[in-house]
Specification:
One of its GO terms (cellular component) is cytoplasm. This protein is an alpha/beta fold. Helix content is about 50%, strand content about 15%. Strands 3-2-1-10-9-8-7-6-5-4 form a 10-stranded mixed β-sheet. Helix 5 crosses helix 6. The protein is globular, with a radius of gyration of 20 Å.
Length: about 350
């Protein structure tokens, strides 16, 4: 189970949503029942979870995808399974759109991560399928890995008014390039960066943070937040892989935080005055961003060459591991679809 806190700077309030493998995003009880779900993500891992559960409207959405006529006519088995996969993502995504007031992010096939035009083509295919189900593009994000090709795809898609969600950000060059590209959401995995730093060395960006007594994951989130707000980029920032409540408190003020249930439950033990239980002290704010100092090296206009030369070993290794995980999950769901196709009861 994953939880997220979405902060609304103008209202100084927050909302919390809950990911459950059988129904996407729903209410959480008992301590947080007054916080409604706000957003959702549909991914290969979510589809795998849905397929392992008893009948739900989401499992029905997958079975309907496996009966799609346009997929039947594809002679190539890999193309047919890819068609089923896309249909399943969109059918489940459409159900989630009806379940939450905010945006639904749809995973883009990680096997395309190093081909800008293939990413754009896939997003347009998914968007067309959503359009057939009368889902507004304004309710959608498309989740793209933060390779240089993925960032460039994000830039071109955003120019067309298609909202993108860049994930697997583990370095400032990735984050800054994503902001310059105009990505709607940038996702940083705070805890994974810390985990890498504990077991490896040789990354200049991480070593610089450590020398300053900073946690490298939190430092990247803070720097990216300040960069976005100081220079007026439109991107919203999401922190993921939050390991403890100290991480959460350090990130208050960021646009989105994804955190495990156990961390949110621990918050109730951190306060004594019920009236102040959710009156968190904001750590990140546009005002403080204005006085944050960046080096000339950090303020370059990123291109593929400067990006490639600036990415350190931490980002390279973590990005590769993230992509491998996504690709494996996609293959697993396609293999599963191959075994159960055609579906029963359709």
């Amino acid at each position: 189970m994953l939880f997220a806190i979405s902060f609304h700077p103008l209202e100084r309030s927050s909302s919390i949503f809950h990911r459950s493998s059988d129904v996407g995003w729903q209410w959480f009880i008992p301590y947080w029942h007054w916080f409604p779900p706000t957003a959702a993500t549909v991914s290969s891992s979510l589809l795998l979870g849905i397929c392992s559960l008893p009948d739900t409207k989401f499992k029905s959405a997958i079975e309907t995808a496996l009966a799609a006529n346009e997929c039947f006519g594809l002679e190539d088995s890999s193309e047919r399974l890819s068609c089923f996969f896309d249909r399943a993502l969109v059918n489940v995504g459409a159900e989630l759109v009806r379940s939450v007031p905010g945006r639904v992010s749809t995973e883009v096939d990680a096997r395309l991560a190093y081909d800008t035009q293939d990413i754009i083509h896939k997003v347009n295919q998914l968007l067309k399928l959503y359009n057939e189900l009368e889902v507004s593009p304004q309710r959608l994000l498309f989740k793209i890995p933060s390779t240089w090709q993925g960032i460039e795809a994000s830039r071109l898609l955003e120019l067309e008014g298609i909202q993108t969600h860049l994930t697997f950000v583990y370095s400032f060059p990735q984050a800054a390039a994503a902001a310059q590209a105009g990505a709607s959401v940038i996702q940083i995995f705070v805890g994974r960066i810390r985990d890498w730093a504990r077991n490896h060395s040789g990354d200049r960006e991480i070593e610089s943070s450590s020398k300053n007594g900073e946690d490298p994951g939190l430092a990247l989130a803070e720097k990216t937040y300040n960069y976005i707000h100081k220079y007026g980029y439109k991107s919203k920032l999401m922190a993921a892989a939050v390991r403890n409540k100290q991480d959460l408190f350090s990130l208050l003020g960021i646009d989105y935080i994804i955190a495990p249930l156990k961390i949110l439950e621990s918050l109730k033990e951190s306060v004594t005055d019920p009236e102040e239980r959710y009156s968190y002290v904001r750590r990140l704010a546009p005002g403080s961003a204005s006085v944050y100092n960046f080096t000339e090296e950090e303020l370059v206009k990123w291109d593929q060459r400067s990006f490639a030369s600036a990415i350190g070993p931490a980002a390279e290794e973590l990005l590769a591991a993230g992509l491998e995980g996504y690709v494996n999950q996609t293959r697993r769901i396609e293999e599963l679809f191959g075994k159960i196709w055609p579906p029963p009861n359709v």
